[in-house]
Amino acid sequence: MTLLSVKNLVKEFPLDFFGREKLRAVDNISFDIDESKIVSLIGESGSGKTTVGKLILKLLKPTSGQILFHGEDIGKFSKNRKEYYKKVQGIFQDPYSSFNPIYKIDRVFEVVFDEFFPHVKNAQRKEKIEKVLTSVGMNPSQILGKYPHQLSGGQLQRILIARTLLLELNILIADEIISMLDASTRIDILNLLAKIKDKTGMSVIFITHDLSLGYYISDESFIMYRGNIVEMGDTQKVFHNPCHPYTKMLLESIPEIDRKWDFREHIKIETIEDESTGCKYFSRCNVREHRCQKQIPELIEIEENHKVMCFKFYG
Ligand SMILES: Nc1ncnc2c1ncn2[C@@H]1O[C@H](COP(=O)(O)OP(=O)(O)O)[C@@H](O)[C@H]1O
Ligand SMILES: [Mg+2]
C-alpha cells in the first residue's frame, strides 16, 4: 500500500532580497513510498535531500507540486498538525540539538505524552518509556535521570528512535542520522531501523550522502543531483546496474578496501560553463550528446522498478 506520494514537487528559494533570482533546490520530483520500506535519498551535499525531507515534514511549503499522505494532500493537516506528526516524524544529523541540555533525558519522552497523549497517567508513562528504551537495546535504569552531555551521540540517536516508538509512526525521515557516529555504532543504528521496519511496518526515508550506507540499508534508492532524481528504483538494480552517468561516477569513486592507493585513471571531462537549459548534468557528463544541452530528459523505465533520467536510454 502506498503511504506517501510525491508528485512534481518543486521548491525554490529566493537568491536575492527581491526574489528575482531563485534557486530550484527541488526540481520536479515524483516518487511513491510504500508501507514497510526503507528508501534512501542519496546525493552530494546541496543536492536537495534535506529540503525534500523538510517539505514532507511540513517545515517548508512547496513552490508547486503535491505531497499526499494516504492519498490526502498534507496541506490538509495544517489545522491539525498533531494528527500528521503522530504518523510522520524526523530525526536529524546532530542529536545534541534535539535535547535541551538543562533537562534530563526523560523530558523528550514526557513531551511526547504531553503533546499527543496527555491523558496517559504517570505510572503508565514510565512503563511505556521503559519498554521502548528496552526495545532499542538500552537499559532504562542507565539512561533515565541522566543529562544529554552524559551520553554519547549514538546513545542519543537511539533515544530519539525510542521516542518515535511511543507514536505509531508510518514514516520516519532520518536525515544523515549516523553521519556523526563512529563506524561500529553506525551499523547498530542501521540494524535497529531495519528491525523496527520489519516489526511495525513503518517506512523510513533514509537521507545520506554515503552510497554504501544507502546500499546497506535500503530496499529502494533514489539518486539526487541538483534537485532532480536522476536514477531510482530497486537498490540492487541501481547499484548493480547503474545507468545514469552520475550514479556510475559516484559508484566508481567509492574507495575499495583491496585497492590501497591504486589510483584509477580519472575520467577527465572538459567542463563547459553551465549555460545549458537542458540536462543539469550536461557540463560534467562523459556521454553527453547535442540534445542534452537544450532538452531535459524524463525519467524513463529501463527495467521493472528502475528508472533513469538520461537520453542515452531513449529508444
Ligand atoms: N532556507 C534556505 N534558503 C535558501 N537556500 C536554501 C535553503 N535551504 C537550502 N537551500 C539551498 O538549497 C540547496 C539544497 O539544500 P539541501 O536540501 O540542504 O541539500 P542537501 O541536504 O542535499 O545537502 C542548497 O543549494 C542550499 O544552499
Ligand atoms: Mg542535508
From TrEMBL:
The keyword Cytoplasm does not apply. The lineage of its organism: Bacteria, Thermotogati, Thermotogota, Thermotogae, Thermotogales. Gene3D superfamilies: P-loop containing nucleotide triphosphate hydrolases (3.40.50.300). It comes from the Bacteria. It comes from Pseudothermotoga lettingae (strain ATCC BAA-301 / DSM 14385 / NBRC 107922 / TMO) (Thermotoga lettingae). Pfam families: ABC_tran, oligo_HPY. One of its GO terms (molecular function) is ATP binding. Keywords: ATP-binding, Nucleotide-binding, Transport. Residues 4-251 form the ABC transporter domain. The keyword Cytoplasm does not apply. This is Oligopeptide/dipeptide ABC transporter, ATPase subunit. One of its GO terms (biological process) is peptide transport.
